[in-house]
């Protein structure tokens, strides 16, 4: 029996098979090529959320990241590379993302973390490579070790934001027992993301205008797909008589806009925790969508 591949080896095999360069995948993940190379060579671990992001960027199910050669399932060598982030009995299902309600610190390399802070503080056009390098505690040449331009950093941040939100929304939608449950889960997911990930969400709302046409089209397509998920579940709930709103499409867009506006006013550490805020927003959304008073959600979810 041959030796089981590590998670890094599996990622490299799948990336190569899909014809994606190391630099392109790293940019999509919001990390430097050196960081991704370290993952692929087994020098550093990889989180469950990042595994889900890799799968999304490569256009494959998460299980394929663990099983690039079509074996029956991930072996112990692959699972070991996750540092316990994914339980073996869940490695092949949608649980690879982990709990979509759970948030840890944002994982960014020093250059990208500094770029995010600088872009949020003074805007993309007000930022320079020199100010980003100073924020990161790096020389300008040291910053270029990570990214070739501030534009590359902007694209990496926006790609990473869209990938993470998309993975969380897919997981939230999959857990719903019916259309009304799925509407509530998607609203909760959006509110949690835009409060926990306030900085990246704010950047996504304010700096898409700075993208070149080819990048704008790609990022906008992901945003449209996320809106479509809410549109579909609202329409299904209306058709089932669970919601009563005259214009489901417009109402669904109003609900999503309500959530995406959170970064404009929310401040971490304030009187309202993200979880409490998300619960309130679910109530706001269902009221806007015309939920009849007698209609309840799946009690196992609430």
TrEMBL record:
Task: Supply the source organism's classification.
Answer: unclassified sequences, metagenomes, ecological metagenomes
Protein name from the UniProt record: Unannotated protein
Q: Return the InterPro entries for the record.
A: Cro/C1-type_HTH, Homeodomain-like_sf, HTH-type_TetR-like_transc_reg, HTH_TetR, KstR2_TetR_C, Lambda_DNA-bd_dom_sf, Tet_transcr_reg_TetR-rel_C_sf
Ranges of residues in domain HTH tetR-type: 105-165
Looking up PROSITE patterns in the UniProt record yields: HTH_CROC1, HTH_TETR_2
Question: Keywords on this record?
Answer: DNA-binding
What are the HTH cro/C1-type domain coordinates in residue numbering? 11-65
Gene Ontology MF term list: DNA-binding transcription factor activity; transcription cis-regulatory region binding
What the entry lists under Pfam families is as follows:
HTH_31, TetR_C_24, TetR_N
């Amino acid at each position: 029996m041959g030796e089981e591949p590590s998670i890094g080896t599996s990622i490299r095999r799948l990336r190569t098979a899909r014809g994606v360069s190391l630099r392109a995948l790293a940019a999509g993940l919001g990390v430097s090529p050196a960081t991704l190379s370290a993952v692929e060579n087994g020098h550093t671990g990889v989180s469950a959320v990042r595994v889900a992001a890799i799968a999304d960027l490569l256009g494959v199910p998460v299980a394929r990241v663990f099983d690039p050669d079509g074996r029956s399932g991930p072996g112990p060598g692959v699972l070991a590379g996750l540092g316990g982030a994914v339980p073996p009995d869940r490695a092949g299902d949608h649980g690879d993302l982990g709990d979509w309600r759970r948030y840890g610190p944002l994982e960014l390399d020093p250059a990208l973390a500094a770029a995010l802070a600088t872009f949020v503080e003074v805007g993309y056009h007000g930022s320079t490579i020199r100010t980003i390098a100073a924020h990161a505690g790096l020389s300008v040449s040291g910053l270029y070790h990570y990214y070739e331009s501030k534009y590359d950093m902007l694209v990496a941040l926006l790609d990473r934001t869209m990938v993470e939100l998309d993975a969380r929304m897919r997981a939230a939608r999959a857990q719903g027992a019916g259309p009304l449950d799925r509407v509530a889960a998607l609203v909760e997911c959006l509110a949690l993301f835009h409060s926990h990930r306030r900085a990246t969400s704010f950047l996504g709302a304010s700096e898409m205008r700075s993208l070149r046409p080819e990048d704008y089209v790609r990022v906008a397509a992901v945003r449209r797909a996320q809106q479509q998920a809410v549109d579909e579940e609202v329409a299904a709930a209306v058709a089932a008589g669970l919601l009563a709103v005259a214009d489901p499409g417009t109402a669904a867009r109003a609900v999503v806009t309500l959530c995406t506006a959170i970064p404009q006013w929310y401040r971490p550490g304030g009187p309202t925790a993200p979880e409490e805020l998300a619960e309130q927003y679910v109530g706001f959304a269902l009221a806007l969508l015309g939920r009849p008073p007698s209609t309840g959600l799946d009690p196992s979810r609430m």
